[in-house]
Amino acid sequence: MKSTPSYIKLYEEGKLKERVEKAYSMLESCNVCPHSCKVNRLKGEKGFCKTAENVKVASFFPHRGEEFPIRGYYGSGTIFISYCNMRCVYCQNYDISHLGEGKEYTPEEIAGIMLYLQEEGCHNINWVTPSHVVPQLLKALYIAVKKGLKIPIVYNTSSYDNPETVELLYGIVDIYLPDIKYLNGDFARKYSKVKNYPEVAKQVIKMMFNQVGNLKTDERGIAYRGVLVRHLVLPNGISTTKEVLDFLYTVSPHIYVNIMAQYHPYYKACDYPELCRRITDEEYRQAVEYARTLGLNLVID
C-alpha cells in the first residue's frame, strides 16, 4: 500500500498556503507554543525558545535509530531542530536543545533539506522538537511540495504544544510521534521548567489521535499514518508511568506505545539525587507489564 501524504491534497486545494499564512501571523506576537511569550519574532525578538524567524538546525540525516515503523529500511529523514520549549534537566540532547548548537536556516533552505532527504530514500520527513518553529516548517513544506516533496511528515514532539498550533497541522501531518513525560505538574515544573504540562500534553495527544487515528503501516510494516506515543521511564516513579498509561488507554485501548528504558542521568540530572541513577530492570519490567495488562500495543525495538 502506498499512501499519498495528506498535505498534497491541501496544497492542490490551495489551503496549504492559507495555513502557512495563519501560522506565520502567530509569530508577530508569538503564541506558537504554550509559553505565549508575545515577542515579535519576525522582527528578531526572542522568547523562551531563543529563536527568532530563522530556524537553527543541528543536523539532518537518514535516521536509522527510530522505531522500525518510523525508520523502515532506508531511514527516517530526520531534521534535528535546535533549542526547545522545555528545559528538561536530564535532556540527553542538551547541547542541541539547551545550548542551541547548530546553524541557522531559512525556510527555503529547510525545503532543500527535505527534498535532499527524500532523494536519499527516506520514508518520511521527521521534524524533531518542532513545537516552537511550526510556522517556519510549514513555509518550508509549502516550498518543498511545489518542488516535488511527496513523503509523509512525522511530528516528533515533547507534547508541550499550543492546541491552536496543532489544529493548524490537521491534514498536514500524517504521523505524530509525541513523547509524554509525566502527569504530575510539580514534576513538570521542577524537572522540565514548564507549567501546565499534564493538561497541555493530554489535550494535544487527544487532538493528534483524533486527527490521524491509531498507527497504520503498509505491507512492509512502515508507518504512513497515525500516532505512536513514546514514554521514557524515569527512576523512583518520577515518570508517573501508571498514570500515563491509564490516560493513554482512555485515548484508545489499543494505542501504540514505546516504553523506553534508555534513561541516563545526563546534563544536570545529578543536581537532583532522585534522578541521579539509571532505572532498574524491575522498574522497566513493571512499566511494560502494566501496559500489557491494559492491552496497549507495545512497540519494542
From TrEMBL:
Descriptive protein name: Putative pyruvate formate lyase activating enzyme
Cofactor dependency: [4Fe-4S] cluster
The organism of origin for this protein: Persephonella hydrogeniphila
Entry keyword set: Iron, Iron-sulfur, Lyase, Metal-binding, Pyruvate, S-adenosyl-L-methionine
The record's free-text note on cofactor binding: Binds 1 [4Fe-4S] cluster. The cluster is coordinated with 3 cysteines and an exchangeable S-adenosyl-L-methionine.
Residue positions binding [4Fe-4S] cluster: C84, C88, C91
Keyword Ion transport included in the entry's annotation: no
Domain named Radical SAM core: residues: 79-208
One function term, GO molecular function aspect: lyase activity
Keyword field contains ATP-binding: no
InterPro entries: Aldolase_TIM, MJ0674-like, Pyrv-formate_lyase-activ_prd, rSAM, rSAM_sf
Family matches, as Pfam families: Radical_SAM (PF04055)
